[in-house]
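Hi team,

Filling in the usual template for the complex we talked about on Friday. All components are listed, including any nucleic acid strands or ligand strings, so the model treats them as one assembly.

SUBMITTER: L.P.
PURPOSE: interface mapping
COMPONENTS: two
RESIDUES: 550
SEQUENCES:
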Amino acid sequence: MTITVPDPSQKHQRREHGLMLALVSPALLVILALIVLPVGWLAWQSIYHDGFTLENYRRVFTEDIYWRSFALTFEISLAVTGIALLLGYPVAYLANSVPKGWSILILSLVVLPFWTSVLVRAYAWLALLQRTGVINQLLRYLDVISEPLALVHNTFGTVVATVHILLPFMVLPLYATMQKIPGDLMQAGASLGASPSLTFVRVFLPLSLPGVLAGCTMVFVLCLGFYITPELLGGGRTVMVSMLVSRNVELYNQFGAASAVAVVLLVSVLLIFLVVSRFISLDRILGQK
Amino acid sequence: MTRLSPARIVLYVISALVLVYLILPVLIIAPISFSSARFLTFPPPSFSLRWYEQYFANPAWMQATRVTLTVAFFTVVIATPLGVAAAYAISQSKLRIMRIIHMALLLPLVVPIIITAVGIFFVYAKVGLVATLPGLVLANVMLGLPYVVISVLAGLQSFDPAQEMVARSLGMNRLRSFFAVTLPQIKSSVVAGGIFAFISAMDETIVALFISGGQYQPLTKRMFTALRDEIDPTIAAISTLMTAASFMLVLLASTRQKRSG
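RESULT (copied from the run log):
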């Protein structure tokens, strides 16, 4: 069958498509101008300076200061992810296994800090952890220590505050996944004679793994790019990749080097998302606020 | 199941400790802000409002507050309609490219913010937007868009597009039927998205560190600089006010979302 007359429904559909594209275009324009273009600019600047050059990447991959910073950032991110999982799993498990009212209370406490500025929380941790801070004063009052402990302006302080900020990103996907595990599966395990701990290890834990993966990915990726917390609580010694970027821009005017570091960081993040998306859908990672 | 086994008790204790860890920093700031002590002492020696007075009497802090509120206001005014239009198109259109556009609109959540910040700084330096109010607003619109889009898309999921069809078949044009039929039903998610965009603009620090300057520095940039130099309890007063503002806004957003079901 050949169509000679323009199909009115087709024309209608084309108008519809046009309208929808027009509606989405202002938002898309903002995204293109303010994130796609800037990131593209960084990528360009990292390889072009009066001609093409790979000098910036050579530096990032060979010079000690860059190398060490990347290594440290990955180590801290791994540690933060591991601790967040250890702390977050029990809380998510508890929230999932108690009556509705209690689980709402637990989840509210989890997301409460979420809505406090990262800056405010950095201040709070300084107040808690510094030499004359609340924790040191309390420990001295209780005669546990005689000299104040160095709890902040080092990697320890950075990790404590970073885990605090990222913990909700672990608990929420874990809880969402646990919610979908049918309760009768556990009962089935019990009725077949398995002990509660065996049922947990053999039934519940494997079924919660997608949540573990989603939470760990989000925490790890966010931690890779963390800036404010290590800058304020790291005491200048914990130089994470993000600080390398900002120092190269603000202090040394090394725009090419800063761009190369930023590109390597971004590629790492995108690779992680790409690998993880083969196992679970990206919506699952990003869907939780 | 509810019998208290040893494992269960361990679970309760660990969870309780984690929850304390989560909320302790949020709770510690307010007492510090009402303390009379210059240096941090806990518990505070006596009650005082001096840090609040210092904040409200300081022209630099007041100017920064004005900048923050102005930027947050314009961010909401611009990001909300853009986000609603985009979310509507994404949910209604069958075009395959919409999936890609949807992902693109979530980019600000995926790209590490430090990278976005440095990139914007370079682009702004070329076009002369560094240390300007429009520059700050535009960057925050971009950062706030994903919150509006996510919230409104969730609202549209429970909306039946056939209702709008009915309105149109009864003679309303597309625009009127949207405002008369669709918008009232997704109003709560629109308001919630706008509130999240406001909070995001109010708390935004990293982009502001790179692109703001002169008289157009938001509160967060001044706080960051102050925190790097010394710990001044004025920051505690500002933090308490900011936290109170955030919580009230979130409460507002969540009651609205609940009402829509």
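MY TAKE: Residues 59-92 of chain B form the longest helix (34 residues). Residues 58-260 of chain B form a domain with the MetI-like fold fold (CATH 1.10.3720.10).

Thanks, L.
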